[in-house]
Amino acid sequence: MKQIFKLIGGLLLGACIGFIGVTFIIALFTDLSLNTFFEKLQKIELLELIGVMLYSLIAFVLSFALQIILHEGGHLVCGLLTGYRFVSFRIFNWVFIKEKGKLRIKHFSIAGTGGQCLLTPPDKPLKEIPVILYNLGGVAANILTAILALVILLTTETLSYPLELFLIFMCIIGFFLGILNGIPFKMKSISNDATNLCLLLKDETSKQTLVYLLHMNALAQKGMRPKEMPKKYFLLPEKIDYKNSLQINHCMMVTGRMMDEKRWEECRLFLEDLMAHKDDILALFAKETACELLYLSLQTGNEERAKELYTDELSLYIQQHAKGMSSKQRVLCALALYLEKDQIKAQKIYDDLVSNRDQQLMQGEVKMDLDLMEYMLKNKS
Asked: pLDDT tens for residues 146-181?
C-alpha cells in the first residue's frame, strides 16, 4: 500500500513540475500572456494536458540525472588533472569500480547523496596535495553547463519545444546544484563540497584526515580489513571537533578497526561519547553511530540499551541500506540472534551475505562483518 501511495505522490509531483515548467517557458520565452495561456489551457483535453505534464517530468528527470553525472564527472576530471587516482564513481546506487583491470558495476548508496567520486590523493607531502579543484570540480561542471544551456536558449530561435524544455531544466538544475554545493552550509544529512573545502583550507588536521579517509576507502574497496590497514590512518586528534564532518567520518572508521579487533568495551564507550554529541554531528553519522552502538549493545549483552536505540526510524534506515552495506547485515544478524532469539534467521542473514559478497562495494568491510557474524553465531550456539 505504501508503494502505491508513493507512486501516486510521484505522479502528482511530476504533474506539478510539468505544469510549472510549461508556465516558466511561456513567461520567459514566448510573447503569449499568462491569461491567454490559461484560457487556451481550459480548451485542452485532459489526456493531452497529462501528456504534456508527463513529458515535462521526463525532461526534468533526465536533466537532473545528467547534472548529477556532470557533477561527479567534474570531480573526476579535476581530480585526475591534479594527480589523484581513480577508485570508484557512483551515480545514485550504481558504482563503477575497477577490479583486476576490469570495470565492474556494484550497488551502494549513501543517504542524502546522488553520487560520489572517490579518488586517492597523489603521493606528495601534505602541504602540496591539491584540494581546491577536486572539491569544486562538480560545482564548476554544473554552473558551466547551466550557462551553456542558457546561452543556447537565448541565442537560438528554432528550438523545438522538447529541446527547449530540456535546456530550461538543465539551466535551472545546474544553477541549483552549483549553488547547493558551492556555498558553504551543512545540510541535514551531509556537508556540501564548499563546506568540506573550507575545512580543508582552514587547518592541516582536516586535510590529513581527508587523505587518510581516501586511502582507507580505497583499501576497503580492494578487500583490506580495517585491522590490516596502517595504524597511522586511525590516529585521531587529541580533541575531536564534533561539528567537523571529516573528523566524525574518521571516528566512524576508527570504530570499525576497534570492532575488527574485537575491542568491544572500548568501542562501545567511544560510540556512547559520539552519541552524547549527536546534536552536533551530521544526521548521517548520528544514524551510523546508533547502528554500531546497537550492534555492540547486543554483542555485550546490554539488551535494554539496544531496545532504546532500536527505534522505528533506525529500523527503517537499516532496512534501506541493508542490501548494499554489509554492516547493516551484521546488525540485522545480531538483532535476530540476540533480540529475536532466532538462530535460523540469523544464520540465513549470514548465508545471504556470503552468497552476495562479491556484489558488495567495500570488500574489506565484508570480510570483517562476516568474521564478526561467524563469531556471534559460534558463541551463541
From this structure: 999 999 999 988 888 788 889 989 999 999 999 999
Backbone angles phi, psi at 96, to 5 degrees: -100, 125
Distance CA 235, CA 244 (A): 16
What is the domain count for the chain?
2
pLDDT for 335-351, tens place per residue? 999 999 999 999 999 99
Residues 166 and 305 in one domain: no
Domain presence at residue 116: no
| Domain with 344 in it | 203-380
One domain for residues 163 and 226 = no
Residue 329 pLDDT exceeds 90? yes
**Maximum distance among all alpha carbons in the chain?**
77
Classify strands 102-107 and 85-91 as parallel, antiparallel or unpaired: unpaired
Mean pLDDT of 242-259: 94
Predicted structure pTM score = 0.83
pLDDT for res 238 = 86
Q: Which percentage of the chain shows pLDDT scores above 90?
A: 64
| Burial degree of 269 (CB within 10 A; 0-12, 13-18, 19+) | exposed
Closest residue by Cα to residue 88 from 132, 75, 211, 358: 75
Which cell numbers hold the place of 282? 551530521
- The residue type found at 139 is V
- pLDDT of res. 379: 84
Whether residue 218 sits in one domain with residue 158: no
CA atoms within 13 A on the CB side of 338: 25
State the pLDDT at residue 323. 87
Task: Using the 3D structure, point to which of 194, 212, 242 is the last residue of a domain.
Answer: 194
Whether the CB-CB separation of 209 and 247 falls below 8 Å is answered with yes
Is 98 a member of any domain? Answer: no
